[in-house]
Amino acid sequence: MTTTDNSGDVRLSGIGKTYGSFTAVHPLDLTVPQGSFFALLGASGCGKTTTLRMIAGLEEPTQGTVHLGDQDVTHLPPYKRPVNTVFQSYALFPHLDIFENVAFGLRRRGIKSVKKQVEEMLELVQLGEQARKKPHQLSGGQQQRVAVARALINHPKVLLLDEPLGALDLKLRRQMQLELKRIQTEVGITFVHVTHDQEEAMTMADTVAVMNAGRVEQLGSPADLYENPGTTFVANFLGTSNLIEAEVDSTSGDDLVLKAGGGKLVLPRARCSAPATAGGKVLVGVRPEKISLTHADDAGEIPEGRNRLTGKIADASFIGVSTQYVVESPVCDELAVYVQNVERDGRLVPGADVVLHWSPAHTFGLDAAQDIDAGVETLEEEAA
Amino acid sequence: MSTLTEAPPPLASAAPAKKPPRRRGRLTPYWLLLPGILWLVVFFALPMVYQASTSVQTGSLEEGYKVTWHLATYWDALAEYWPQFLRSVLYAAAATVLCLLLGYPLAYLIAFRAGRWRNLIMILVIAPFFTSFLIRTLAWKTILADNSPVVHTLNTLHVLDLTSALGWTAGDRVLATPLAVVCGLTYNFLPFMILPLYTSLERIDGRLHEAAGDLYARPWTTFRKVTFPLSMPGVVSGTLLTFIPAAGDYVNAELLGSTDTRMIGNVIQTQFLRILDYPTAAALSFILMAAILAMVTLYIRRSGTEDLV
Amino acid sequence: MPFVTWLKRHLVVIAGLLTLSYLLLPNVIVTVFSFNRPKGRFNYEWQQFSLDAWRQPCGVADMCGSLSISLQIAVWATVGATLLGTMIAFALVRYRFRARGAVNSLIFLPMAMPEVVMAASLLTLFLNMGAQLGFWTILIAHIMFCLSFVVTAVKARVMSMDPRLEEAARDLYAGPAQTFLRVTLPIAAPGIAAGALLSFALSFDDFIITNFNAGSTVTFPMFVWGSAQRGTPVQINVIGTAMFLVAVLFVLASMLIGNRRNRQKA
Fold first, then answer.
1. CA–CA separation, B272 vs C121, rounded Å?
2. What are the φ and ψ backbone dihedral angles of A41, each rounded to 5 degrees?
3. Which of C17, C19, C103 faces B33 most closely, judged by CB atoms?
4. How many independent structural domains does chain B possess?
5. Does B271 reside within a domain?
6. Which sign does the torsion angle of CA B11, B12, B18, B24 carry?
7. Which residues pair with A282 in a beta bridge?
């Protein structure tokens, strides 16, 4: 396989799925280039698994087409597609041993001498010793590796992973994330990975599509999505965002000047995904770790040109590498601020008056017509 | 939203594009169902219709029967055989209660206390099934015979004096009395009580007992407030699986009872196979079916379970 | 009082074991009396030890013939009920179709119906159709009442099966037929086996429905029933004991093999 080969491209054109009156996936276009590690990220029920299953052929799209490279596979049954899946909770065949599980796909394609290939594959996932065991005799991590081996041995054009790490504990999950990333780099196959874990998606994938309510909210590299979210859902679902309601006051050059509470905030026009005209409303966003905290007594020392807000510390929790503050401000009840524990200011305790300030370059602007809390709830559930 | 690539929802393509070629699976369930369901319709449902029709016929064996809507057959049958009906219900109810009382400890033992003996005890519960139940029922003739050790002991302890006073036994005899019949019914249908009980007990998480103990419940309270309520599905299906066949049984009454312990099953069997009074037999059978179905429906409604097995 | 404490702690075990002995007592009697040499026609009272019946298990007229008829009917009833019942179970679990409720009721009702009612109504059908009562009418009846039990057993198994296993098979290049043969059927097999075993036992041991629909054909339970009136030969106990032993040995052997296989693999 060379890099110019496009046979591993996945192209979804206007693909959508409805069940009766419920729309699981709104018609969407998506191209996953050959050799990339692509993640579909979203809360449960957002349509990401349905999208994956339409690529696998396990679900027939209500409309639109699926292409693999130049081949239209929309109406091909799964057993005729050069695509393999690592299923949620693995779906290893309980009546077959590990060897036969891995050999299953080869045998169905009529390949007689499978021994060498299977043994090599089991070595690759470090399960050579376990070949004759039944799936239930293996640990969760081992089962996961069998599932990967069972799919990869067929040299699919695209490997689909449906929440492959969901059943593993945190430590093993971290380990397997790196392992999967290594395998992907080694074999060069296109990986499409479905997950609800934003950290997992950002760690592993080079491109992430954030899905919500059957639509792709935003698509881009992890850093791009994090630094410049396009919707409140993405802003809240990926990490934490402070969102402040503001009014467009004026424009100056490439910047927008906004009124929030009594103060002014500056936002680069390029970082505002909402149409901004003077007098219009926008949501101003900034990530908690981008904000610096200065005690009100030292307000004069803050350099010029930074966005500032005044507030009062409501709560502080010491995390180790950082301290997380909750600050009450006239423009927003709860602003989150993460401060690295380098030089701790002893005056920054609950009740202290502070000035929050950050660089305009770290500000982003969102359409104010959206739900300001979209994507927040899911994150809390995740943490619980 | 520059990166968001969403196709405008095209109205035209909302209509199914080209129909995919594989749509022939729609008739599959009907082909799968057809032979078995046909079998049940012809040999289970249709006979019920024939039986209902037979029950309102009049005539004789020699001249043949005709449907005359002679509903009086039902009244006559009820008037003549209500004692047997009543007896069937009483005996079956007694056997069901006995099965529950005897079966519960054994099911509990297998589920929670048997440890490595669990499989062995399970085998011992099921294995008797493989000896014809008629042979095993005949064995009760030996066990309950007048001079058997069991009856002798009961006599010495004056238990039979008490049961005879209640009308369950006759003098110093057990065989050919209601007690013998109920004993046989209990024995025959006990496994049908134990197995569903065991199934629902086995599903109970052992930690629930520990949790109840931790929350100040004594063992008996734990049983009443936790174990028993959770085993209700087993109790419901166990009682149904015991009561229904027991109410229609005539083997135990015939082998272990006397003419005074005849149940409705005996009457139906005699009417059908010996007296050949088909309308009466069909009417009796129909009444039994209706009564059982009514009782079962009521019972299932009240206990809130839908599964029989 | 340590004895009272001990009794309290083990009350359930004692009660359970008492029930178990109640269940097994008749089998003990059957076994013991298979070595009896009764005086008269009935084998209800112990006289003296003898191996006669064991030496000549078929020494009674017609008994082994009836046994053979029962076995044949049980085998065919098992095959028929298992096949039809498995098909229904798959349809019920795997497909959506009209009249689902009616089908479920039709499966449920034979299990909620006293045998004597089914027996009597089936006889009215056969009489009305002028059918010749015998082997075939018995077989038809047995398939009918075993069917529901097979459906229940297989349905439970197929329902608990992860649908993703079949999707995985299709994903791994198995077409519909291959998926069914390589994945669905092997995984459903224990349920099908349980249904078949139950069918065999129910059919082999059935008396009431057979009694109504047998005509002049005599199955083994019918032979026993008849002998309860005419005189019970000791050979009946021999057959009963042998069946019990074969069943226990069969189960023990399969368990031992299963255990050993597991230990080797672990």
1. 10
2. -115, 135
3. C103
4. 1
5. yes
6. positive
7. A246, A367
Dihedral angle of Cα C14, C19, C25, C26, to the nearest 10 degrees: 180
Cα–Cα distance, B221 to B211 (Å, whole number)? 12
pLDDT at B18 over 70: no
The strand ranges marked E within A69-198 are: 71-72, 83-86, 158-162, 190-195
Q: A315 touching B, CB under 8 A?
A: no
The answer to whether the beta carbons of residues A37 and A221 sit under 8 Å apart is no
Indicate the residue type of A311.
G
| Alpha-carbon torsion (A159, A73, A220, A378), positive or negative | negative
Taking CA–CA distances from A215, the nearest residue in chain B reads B6
Residues of chain C with Cβ-Cβ distance to B47 below 8 Å are: 118, 121-122, 124-125
What per-residue confidence (pLDDT) applies to A363?
93
Domain boundaries, chain A: 10-227, 243-372
User: What pLDDT is attached to residue A173?
Assistant: 87
pLDDT at C27: 92
Whether residue A63 contacts residue B13, with contact meaning beta carbons closer than 8 Å, is answered with: yes
**How far from B113 is each of A195, B234, C135, CA to CA, in Å?**
44, 18, 46
Contacts of B33 in chain C (CB under 8 A): 87-88, 91, 97, 103
DSSP B37-62: HHHHIIIIIHHHHHHHHHHTEEEETT
- Across B116-131, b (16+ Cβ under 10 Å) vs e yields eebeebbebbbbbbbb
Write the ipTM.
0.89
Q: Does domain A243-372 have CATH number 1.10.1740.10?
A: no
- Is A112 within 8 Å of chain C by CB? no
Whole-angstrom Cα Rg for chain C: 23
**Can you give the residue range of the structural domain that contains B187?**
67-303
Sign of CA dihedral B82, B85, B91, B94: negative
Q: What is the CATH number of the domain that holds B147?
A: 1.10.3720.10
- DSSP reduced 3-state for A331: coil
Contact yes or no for A57/A78 (Cβ under 8 A): yes
Cβ–Cβ gap C169/A93 under 8 Å = yes
Maximum Cα interatomic distance, chain A, rounded to a whole number of Å: 80
Q: Could you give the maximum distance between any two Cα atoms of chain B, in Å?
A: 99
Whether B86 and chain C come into contact, CB under 8 Å, resolves to no
Going by pLDDT thresholds of 50, 70 and 90, the confidence category of residue B19 is very low
Report the C-alpha gap between A243 and A374 in whole angstroms. 11
Q: Name all chains with 3 or more CB-CB pairs below 8 Å to chain C.
A: A, B
pLDDT tens-digit series, residues A44-55:
888 999 999 999
Q: Is residue B96 part of a domain?
A: yes
Q: Which residues of A touch B13 (CB under 8 A)?
A: 14, 27, 63-64
pLDDT tens digit string along C6-50?
888 888 899 999 999 999 999 999 999 999 988 888 888 888 898
Percent of chain C with pLDDT over 90: 62
Q: State the best of C8, C27, C104, C116 to mutate against chain B, taking most chain B CBs within 10 Å.
A: C116
B237/B240 Cα distance (integer angstroms) = 5
β A190-195/A158-162 pair status? parallel
- Angle at which helix C2-33 crosses helix B72-108, to 10 degrees, equals 120
Beta bridge partners of B188: none
pLDDT of residue C126: 94
Domain A10-227 classification at class level: alpha beta
Residue A168 DSSP one-character state: S
Q: Is the pTM of this model over 0.90?
A: no
Question: Residue A293 pLDDT more than 80?
Answer: yes
Q: How confident is the model at residue C266 (pLDDT cuts 50, 70, 90)?
A: very low
Domains located in chain C, CATH noted: 61-232 (1.10.3720.10)
Q: CB–CB of B186/B95 below 8 Å?
A: yes
CA C54 to chain B, closest CA, distance in angstroms equals: 16
